[in-house]
Amino acid sequence: MRRVDATSDSPLSVSRGGVRVAIANDADDHAANLTGWKQAYDQLAPGRFRGTLREFWLGSHMQVFEETTSHAVRQSCKVWAGAFWFGIPAGDGPPGRIGPRALEQDAVAVRPGGIEFELLTPSLFRIFGLVVERELLLKHIAETEHIALAPSVLDSEVLNIGNAARSALEQALRSLFNAPRLLMDREQARNALRDMLLNVITRTCISGLPAPKSSLTYIDRHRLVRRVRDFALAHQDEPLSIPHLCRTFHLSRRSLQYAFQEVCGISPGAYLRILRLNGVRRALRAPERSFLDVQDLAAQWGFWHPSQFACDYKKLFGERPSDTLRRHAEPFAFAKS
Fold first, then answer.
1. Tens-of-pLDDT digits for all 337 residues of the chain?
2. Residues 183 and 231 reside in one and the same domain
3. Could you give the CA distance from residue 307 to residue 236 in angstroms, rounded to a whole number?
4. Rounded to whole angstroms, how far apart are CA atoms 303 and 307?
5. Residue 59 domain flag
6. What does the alpha-carbon distance between residue 283 and residue 15 come to, in Å, rounded to a whole number?
7. Closest alpha carbon to 108 in 35, 48, 34, 160
8. Are residues 183 and 267 in the same domain?
9. Residue 1 domain-assigned (yes or no)
10. Alpha carbon distances (Å) from 197 to 171, 206, 318, 330
11. Cβ 200 vs Cβ 172: under 8 Å
């Protein structure tokens, strides 16, 4: 298994809370800033070039980056052998091209490692990139979808997956950069984020394949929901992901999806989030405190992103978690005085 040193920085790069940020004023210097790649960039439009790169690694198996280029560029690229690269253009600007094919807004570029490919990108271009080791991705697909995906499925250069799926993938990659320091500090949060990205890219890879039929009856699905609920409550401090549940219960993601939609009317991910939010709320309202503050309690229930937790809590209960704590702490303080 190929391992890449993700810690080295170029002279024009800095690390900010786990995200490596690099800025270049030459196209080839910019090409050299991406860790683990062999690249050469030709600037095609006149004017002073500026390229920016934000790069984050989840272990040595997964690389995520956001790249912007000010001018039209021809790129000769090759990622390391034994990996897959997925490229997701951001925004609504003019499409780039990978080889002879256009990268439209409903498409994702994909190339295997060890093979050189060409990109033509317009001025003011922004793209997100996700590089995943081949073995990790195929194993994840087998465990969560019960599909032995042939690598040849990803030989097409462009995957047309639709605007909604492409937007979901872009948002998943954007989310990584929102709280990088927190992700660096907590291994469980990094693992959960890795599973989330694998889950999103898995749906991208299998988007054109027929869904396998489920053999579960309604009674089976009802029992499954109960088992998942009990498991989640027994592991309240872990940010449980759908891939984690698939591995634990030996079911495909779609089987879990069908079970929760039929029994609860919501997705398993939404159910787990609501279950944990209710657990937080009960603790905030309890007369005895087993936590230091709201953020500490949120972490006890597996919420590692404070702002997202606060947003989800207010959306569900109509108030901030601090409001709940304050309202129930004041009578308690009065009674003790």
1. 333 444 443 435 555 557 889 999 999 999 999 999 999 999 999 999 999 999 988 887 899 999 999 999 999 999 999 999 999 998 777 889 999 998 887 888 999 999 999 999 999 999 999 999 999 998 888 888 877 777 777 778 888 888 887 888 888 788 777 655 555 566 766 777 788 788 888 878 877 666 556 667 888 889 999 999 999 888 877 767 788 888 888 888 888 888 999 999 999 989 999 999 999 999 999 888 878 888 888 888 878 777 888 999 999 999 999 999 888 775 544 344 3
2. no
3. 19
4. 10
5. yes
6. 37
7. 160
8. no
9. no
10. 10, 14, 30, 42
11. yes
Same domain membership, residue 174 and residue 119: yes
Rounded to whole angstroms, the Cα distance separating 243 from 99 reads: 34
Spatial CB neighbours of 73, under 8 Å, sequence gap ≥ 6: 27, 41, 42, 43, 44, 119, 120, 121, 125
Global pTM exceeds 0.85 = no
By C-alpha distance, which of 300, 267, 316, 303 is closest to 192? 303
How far is 133 from 81, CA to CA, in rounded Å?
Answer: 9
* In a shared domain, residues 292 and 326: yes
Domain of 276, CATH number, reads 1.10.10.60
**SS3 of the chain: helix, strand, coil, percent, to 5:** 45, 20, 35
Phi and psi based region of residue 82 (left: phi greater than 0; alpha: psi -120 to 50; beta: remaining): left
Number of compact structural domains in the chain: 2
Alpha-carbon distance of 291 to 283, in angstroms, equals: 9
- Find the domain containing 162 and state its range: 13-205
At what angle are helices 242-249 and 253-263 packed, to 10 degrees? Answer: 100
The amino acid that residue 32 corresponds to is A
- Structure tokens given for 280: 């937080």
Asked whether residue 266 falls in the same domain as residue 319, the answer is yes
Of residues 52, 62, 68, 64, the one with CA closest to residue 13:
52
Same domain, 160 and 291: no
